[in-house]
Amino acid sequence: MKAIQMVKPGSEPELREVDKPSPGPGEVLLKVTAAGACHSDDFVLNLPPEGFPYPLPLTLGHEGVGVVAELGSGVTTLTEGTAVAVYGPWGCGVCHFCSRGLENYCSNAAELQIAPPGLGAPGAMAEFMIVDDPRHLVPIGDLDPVTTVPLTDAGLTPYHAIKPSLPKLVGGTTAVVIGTGGLGHVAIQLLRHLTPSRVIALDVTPEKLDFAKEVGAHETVLSDADAVANIRKITGKDGATAVFDFVGYQPTIDTAMGAVGTMGDVTIVGLGDGQAAAKVGIWAQPYEVSVRAPYWGSRSELIEVLDLARDGALDVAVQTFGLDDGVDAYRKLAANDLRGRAVVVP
Ligand SMILES: [Zn+2]
Ligand SMILES: [Zn+2]
Asked: In this predicted structure, what is the pLDDT of residue 338?
């Protein structure tokens, strides 16, 4: 079968011919119907070769939707032909975090070498993929695979990031979204659907700001050196109640910390260069600001996000590519030349 694989750190992924996998005991084989490309793939592709964390070659794709093609022995909770979305942050299933559905924070995954598909285990950018356990699959019913697949990360991650701030996002408050790409443009829609807050979106080009308005932002501000002043012109002296940074480089984290108001939340979601950090101290920010850096989301939250999609609350912008031009999808992703999410349809 065909698969898009990372072969060498610092190089483009390649379309390669690999063996079709067959499911072992307890596993599920999916015929992939859609796979999403994510900025974190680009981050991984450009990691230095020294200490590279995953075995290579690695089939990419941590966002996957497919149809159950074959059940490994002992799997009784699914039937062949069911359309499912893959919950990506696989854990052990038995530790305290996993028991709460928070497999993204599994205590044992590192020790047991359990890795998400596309981020260690073979991913969804292929004709078929193995899912290690049926609990990592959520039936999608008649949802469209192409617009549903980004929800497994670009929907789940902002949902998990926003949820703890919901009690603070009451009428008259402001939520700021920095970065309007795959995750950010879904975050704007989630905030509009789940809160009465005014939503301000930040990005670096007027085109991206227009897009942010199209998906529901009330106001837009260019993400530049004047961003904090321009946000505060809108919020007044109270500042923002919650700022979600889907970029994560030092300038955007500084903008987030500068825009947040007393008792507000700053949530850093974007990977950036993996080095940037918020400075927190008694007078480094307004009083009682909370700073979080979450990762992905829980199993139950994926079910909630798919239910929101079923209610028509989310309209995910996608650009589709065949498996044969999936490498081009990664090129466009690296060049920041995408509107919404790149989805590969095998
Ligand atoms: Zn991702
Ligand atoms: Zn666990």
From this structure: 83
Task: Kindly indicate the confidence band of residue 336, based on its pLDDT and cuts at 50, 70 and 90.
Answer: confident
CA of 17 to the centre of ligand 1 (A): 24
Look at the domain 158-292 and name its fold. Rossmann fold (3.40.50)
For 163, other C-beta atoms within 10 Å of its C-beta total 16
What is the reported pTM? 0.96
* Ion ligand 1 neighbours, Cβ < 5 Å: 38, 40, 153
Domain residue ranges in the chain? 2-153+297-345, 158-292
Distance from residue 63's CA to the centre of ligand 1 (Å): 7
Write the burial class of residue 145 (CB in 10 Å: 0-12 exposed, 13-18 middle, 19+ buried): buried
Closest-approaching ligand to the CA atom of 102: 2
pLDDT in tens, 36-59: 999 889 989 999 999 899 999 999
Ligand 2: distance of its center to the CA of 194 in Å? 29
Q: Answer whether 276's CB lies under 8 Å from 253's CB.
A: yes
**Of the CATH numbers 3.40.50.300, 3.40.190.10, 3.90.180.10, 3.30.70.260, which one belongs to the domain with range 2-153+297-345?**
3.90.180.10
